């Protein structure tokens, strides 16, 4: 009975680890997008006032208003930054859950070993 409960806890722990990995991967992807958008923003700062800005839509370059393009990039940076903060909070919560689950499993494992030694 105790061994089955330990096995169930182990599976729950592994599921937590898989979910944690997915969240970390999402955060990494967002970090990459943030860096890319920050580079675009810096490039906009280097442009002359009369420079023409184009946006790639599918296989076509479409002329875009510079102010609109700059605003869009800044909004994207704000959104990505807020998503990264949300994911970091989620990562911290998941780390705490994993640590708690790991501690519980160690206690269960010690209890199981004690039972086996007594038997």
TrEMBL record:
> Which intervals carry biased composition (Low complexity)?
105-119
Read off the SUPFAM superfamilies from this record.
Prefoldin
Q: Name one GO biological process term.
A: chaperone-mediated protein complex assembly
The record's annotation in Pfam families points to: Prefoldin_2
Q: Report TM segments.
A: none
Q: Which InterPro entries match?
A: PFD_beta-like, Prefoldin
Q: Name one GO molecular function term.
A: protein-folding chaperone binding
Q: Where is the signal peptide?
A: none
Keyword set, alphabetical order: Chaperone
Tell me if Chaperone is a UniProt keyword of this record. yes
Residue numbers spanned by region Disordered: 94-119
Annotated GO CC locations: cytoplasm; prefoldin complex
Q: Where is the composition biased (Basic and acidic residues)?
A: 94-104
**Which family does the UniProt entry place this protein in?**
Belongs to the prefoldin subunit beta family.
State what protein this is by name. Answer: Prefoldin subunit 6
What is the species listed in this Swiss-Prot or TrEMBL entry?
Answer: Rhizophlyctis rosea
